Amino acid sequence: MNKDEFTRATDILNDYIQSRPLKYSEKRLVILRALLDSNRHLTAEELHSIVKDKDASIGIATIYRTLRLFTECGISGELTLDGSTTRYYPALGKAHHDHLICIKCGKVVNIVSPGIEKTQEKLARENGFTLESHRLDLFGICSDCQK
Amino acid sequence: MNKDEFTRATDILNDYIQSRPLKYSEKRLVILRALLDSNRHLTAEELHSIVKDKDASIGIATIYRTLRLFTECGISGELTLDGSTTRYYPALGKAHHDHLICIKCGKVVNIVSPGIEKTQEKLARENGFTLESHRLDLFGICSDCQK
DNA sequence: ATCAATCATGATAATAATTATCATTATCAT
DNA sequence: ATGATAATGATAATTATTATCATGATTGAT
Fold first, then answer.
1. Which of B105, B112, B138, B142 to mutate to test the interface with A (most CBs of A within 10 A)?
2. Which CATH number among 3.40.50.970, 3.40.1190.20, 3.30.1490.190, 3.40.640.10 corresponds to the domain B98-146?
3. Between chains, do A135 and B133 touch, taking CB under 8 Å as contact?
4. How far apart are CA A127 and CA A73, in angstroms?
5. Strand partners, B88
6. Average confidence (pLDDT) over A96-101
7. What is the mean pLDDT of each run of 10 residues along chain B (147 residues)?
8. Which nucleotides on chain C have any atom < 7 A from a protein Cβ?
9. How long is the CA A4 to C1' C29 vector, in angstroms?
10. Helix (H, G, I), strand (E, B) or coil at A108
11. How far is A11 from chain B (nearest CA, A)?
């Protein structure tokens, strides 16, 4: 859908691949395009079923392997809600974001709050921690589901 | 360890049991005491191995069933980090709290920040959501592990 | 105290998501 | 082209958790 985004993602991916003992693969590009096009938070299974329309030979194991690779090099992110299935989403070039999740329909909205981030730093410092990352998920009911 | 806490917990539990078709069980009290005494974030397996010293007949299924019951009636809480094992902790009478987690040693510190809660409410409202709950986990390195 | 109804439990089978294994195929530097 | 090694598909293995089911415990009515 967004050509620039795909190009930027492949650039990052290629750099990552060339900086370590990895090799090119066409299938990774098919998976990448599907992930970027959907622009949703997908499970590995969902992505697999989308991708199979383009290349029926791609197996579920490759989906998992590839998503891990994408997450390692920063072009996708992972979201796990309460010990259940992990969902993957394009994270390229986006600032770190948190999630607002509708507990009725499952919709996920990305949110950003620099204010919260600062408070988090302070809390960590007060407890002697060096902060590495965080996860903030807000659960509620979206406007559609309130009707 | 803390007798008042145990008494308060059993009161809540008894009320809960009597308010629906449930029956008394001694084993639940053994599990409750172990959970309160440890005062840590335990996996079901960890709690099971602690509890077996008191009553070797308690099986892992009962641990899971009982922890779910405790969480339902508010005397324990659940914490799941990134799709892995769920940990359970005493939540009785504690205000809602977030977690500060050491990524080296696994230590979990409870934190409270009214400021963050308010910002969350605002973010939810801005996106048309009614907020129900949230989960905030900060990942970092604790003072011990920085040495 | 007895009894019947039904909840609680232990052992274990089942499930679901993810990862590991391994034989085969593709890539890449020479 | 070739040899080394990464990528892949199919599937076995793993892990945490839940469901099943036969048995034992609790409760309320008699």
1. B138
2. 3.30.1490.190
3. no
4. 30
5. B42, B78
6. 85
7. 80 93 96 90 94 95 97 90 83 79 83 84 91 87 88
8. 6-12, 16-21, 26-28
9. 31
10. strand
11. 28
Provide the pLDDT for residue B134.
87
Burial of B26-59, coded b for 16+ CB within 10 Å and e otherwise, reads: ebbebbbbbbbebeebbebebbbebbbeeeeebe
Tell me the domain boundaries of chain B.
Answer: 3-90, 98-146
Q: What pLDDT digit, counting tens, does each position of A15-67 carry? A: 999 998 999 999 999 999 999 998 678 999 999 999 999 999 999 999 999 99
CATH topology assigned to domain A3-90: Arc Repressor Mutant, subunit A (1.10.10)
Most confident range, picked from A69-83, A88-102, B65-79: B65-79
As a whole number of angstroms, the distance between CA A52 and CA A30 comes to 10
Picking from B82, B129, B141, the nearest residue to A142 by CB comes out as B129
Question: Which residues are within 8 A (CB) of A124 and not within 5 positions of it... i.e. 6 or more apart?
Answer: A130, A131, B100, B138, B140
Higher pLDDT, A63 or A133: A63
Could you tell me which of A90, A88, A97, A78 has the C-alpha nearest to residue A138? A97
3-state secondary structure of A82: coil
Residue A27, both tokens: 């299938």
Q: What's the distance, CA A87 to chain centroid?
A: 7
**Which pLDDT tens digit goes with each residue over A104-127?**
777 888 888 878 888 888 899 999
